[in-house]
Amino acid sequence: MSLSLKPLRLYRPIYYFGRQYSDEDKTRYQILEAGQKPKLVHGKPYAEWRKPWIQRDGEFRSKLSVFVERNPSPDILHFMSQLPNLTTKTIKNWWLDMKELQDIENQRYLPKRVATLGSNLAAAHFFTFRNCAVRLKDSEEWISGDATTLNLPDRYVNGYFIEAVDCTNFFHGGIRYEGLQNLSNLSFLRWLSLRDNKFVDVWGLDRVAGQNGDSLEFLDISGCNICVGCIFALAKMRALKYVILTDPGDNLNLQAAISILEHERPDLLVKAI
């Protein structure tokens, strides 16, 4: 036992001596007085041209340098650059951008909500609280109304299987790409209306095709932002039997895409309004 402890006794004074001069034992005042240590790369001083401009020798520092000391925000720098030319139109555009970002954040898929409620009940909360209506499997009644009066469970309850979702009256201009993710894992979804949702485009329909293409039988996308790519997304929905879309008018490319879809899917009924 004495032989095994002997090396430790020899190195213990060296350990205490090194620990005495470490930065952990120094006060905050001593660390600030010592200043920032020079940064070394492979034993050589860090090149001056690689440093942020605010840390280079000879550069002017002001109170505004707090915004660029660490991880400068592009939004703050852009706003500061617009100060000399600030107009009412600029403020209005900024406000519209902030409202759009807020709307996107409010529609995001929340894993914690799904973990608490389950996919179907979480979707029921999401859509009914945004002026939409849902219908459950083996039921003829639509669930809708004011968010404060709806009596939906706040914990997982077995038996809530959504079969239909009506997003016609989705608030703030309609559902977005981020909001469509809340339709995921709805295995019994057969009926979906995205009518007059101007933000639904080829990206949104492609997401619906990937999430619900194996179960969705009815889809209303009239009034949406339809293009040729949207028709290709419809072709991916193998269970789809009936689709309603806006009349393509004089758009020859869209007409041709719809004709090809009808030829490839004779069991699919396409109605243009």
Q: Could you describe the 3D structure shown?
A:
The protein is an alpha/beta fold and 273 residues long. The protein folds into 2 domains: 41-73, no CATH class; 103-272, Leucine-rich repeat, LRR (right-handed beta-alpha superhelix) (Alpha-Beta Horseshoe). Helix content is 39%, strand content 11%. It has 10 helices and 9 strands. The chain has helices spanning 2-20, 28-34, 74-81, 88-106, 111-117, 119-128, 177-180, 202-212, 228-235, 252-264, and strands at residues 40-41, 44-45, 133-136, 142-143, 162-166, 191-193, 218-220, 242-245, 269-272. The strands form 2 sheets. The chain has a 7-stranded mixed beta sheet with strand order 4-3-5-6-7-8-9, covered by helices on one side. A two-stranded antiparallel ribbon has the order 1-2. Strand 7, helix 9 (228-235) and strand 8 (242-245) form a beta-alpha-beta unit. Helix 5 (111-117) packs across helix 6, helix 8 packs parallel to helix 9 (228-235) and helix 9 (228-235) runs parallel beside helix 10. The longest helix has 19 residues, at 2-20. Mean pLDDT is 81; it is low at 14-22.
Q: Nutshell version of this structure?
A:
It contains ten helices and nine strands.
CATH architecture of the largest domain: Alpha-Beta Horseshoe
Order of helices and strands: HHEEHHHHEEEHEHEHEHE
Taking pLDDT < 50 over at least 5 consecutive residues as the criterion, the unreliable ranges are 14-22
What do we call the CATH topology of the largest domain? Leucine-rich repeat, LRR (right-handed beta-alpha superhelix)
Task: Count up the domains.
Answer: 2
The average pLDDT value, as a whole number, equals 81
Structural class from helices and strands? alpha/beta
